[in-house]
Specification:
The chain contains ten helices and ten strands. The protein is of the alpha/beta class. The protein binds {5-[(3-aminopropyl)amino]pentyl}boronic acid (OKP) and zinc ion.
């Protein structure tokens, strides 16, 4: 399987995040994808290529508002000019419920465009986020060129990013951007996004909530106990035309392989019923037992099985990297997953 990767992810390397009241070293570290890349090369998963052609911002504007993109582009410089801590942009006050008037104040803007305090912006963040989206777009283009499956090694991740909101280490929603590309450039009529990261992809859910062409299926830790806390409940089923095309399967803390795999089987049944032209997997590996911000108890043998079951759909499949923070095991878990998939396909 082809992997698409860009070294520009390194431009996003914030010094801290604020978690549960403490300023800590970010879990979302550049080493994550370097380790995955290394394992992919050593285990000969397939060729690794760079993003192709020129990035067209219109492909990103199909998902994100222009004012949000221009905020991301200028956030760091304006913040520093206005006297913000040059180490990183992080909001102090969030625009919530009835307090959501707009602002031009560079020290306040981060609170308008963020929903948490663990998504710092540094000088290279926008370029890194664009590169990550470019990785997803290139991968989507290869699917259109009849590549049966592609792995987009994205960083920063994307599934928490909404149309005009960053959060959960995410700035641009790579999976959503790929989905829109497949529909608009490739003329695909139906897509299924299967999100197996331990966290609910609130951004992806928001983007497609009223759409029936893109099914969003998410298996994740119960939002009553874990991040993102305010979204991801089973009764969020989509709205308007999109009713029935959003499905959340929350699982309890410490969920194990048996529970996870039975949720995956349910999700795969729904994916089959949707009859998609392509499946996009938001592939997070923070379900692993040793993950420092996880909460499930999956062991490395779970990932090849997950790959195998997804392969049985026998559909064009685009894997988009999301979370996974147990750095020592990430390479093994990702390669196990991709190999499990590859070894069980009739088409590559
Ligand atoms: C990004 B992705 C856990 C705190 C969570 C933010 C997590 C973002 C996860 N106790 N802080 O879905 O892997
Ligand atoms: Zn996650």
């Amino acid at each position: 399987m082809i992997t698409v990767y860009s070294e520009d992810h390194r431009l996003h390397h914030p010094p801290h995040e604020l978690l549960d009241g403490s300023l800590i070293t970010p879990y979302e570290d550049p080493q994550r994808v370097e380790i995955i890349l290394d394992a992919i090369l050593r285990q000969e998963i397939g060729p690794v290529i760079q993003p192709q052609a020129l990035l067209d911002l219109d492909d990103i504007r199909r998902v994100h508002h222009t004012d949000y993109l221009s905020y991301l582009e200028h956030a760091y410089t304006s913040w520093v000019e206005a006297g913000g801590n040059p180490k990183a942009v992080l909001p102090s006050a969030l625009a919530v419920r009835w307090m959501n008037r707009g602002t031009k104040n560079p020290l306040a803007l981060p609170g308008y465009y963020s929903f948490d305090t663990s998504t710092p912006i540094v000088a290279g963040t926008y370029q890194a986020a664009l590169a990550s989206a470019h990785v997803a777009l290139t991968s989507a283009e290869m699917i259109l060129q009849r590549e049966p499956s592609v792995y987009a090694l994205c960083r920063p991740p994307g599934h928490h990013a909404g149309v005009n909101l960053c959060g959960g280490y995410c700035f641009l929603n790579n999976a959503a951007i790929a989905a829109e590309y497949l529909i608009h450039k490739g003329g695909l009529s139906r897509i299924a996004i299967l999100d197996i990261d331990i966290h609910h992809g609130n951004g992806t859910q928001q983007i497609f909530y009223e759409r029936s062409d893109v099914l969003y299926m998410s298996i994740h830790i119960d939002p009553q106990i874990e991040y993102p806390y305010f979204s991801g409940f089973a009764d969020e089923e989509g709205a308007g035309e999109g009713f029935g095309y959003n499905r959340n399967i929350p699982l309890p803390q410490n969920a194990d392989q048996t529970l996870f795999l039975s949720a995956l089987d349910q999700a795969l049944d729904d994916v089959r019923k949707h009859e998609p032209d392509c499946v996009i997997v938001s592939a997070g590996f923070d379900t692993y037992i040793e993950d420092p911000i996880g909460g499930f108890t999956l062991t490395p043998d779970a990932y090849p099985i997950m790959g195998t079951r997804i392969a049985q759909l026998q559909l064009p499949t685009l894997f988009v990297q999301e979370g996974g923070y147990a750095i020592q095991a990430l390479g093994t878990n990702v390669c196990g997953f991709l190999s499990g998939f590859q070894n069980n396909r009739s088409v590559a």
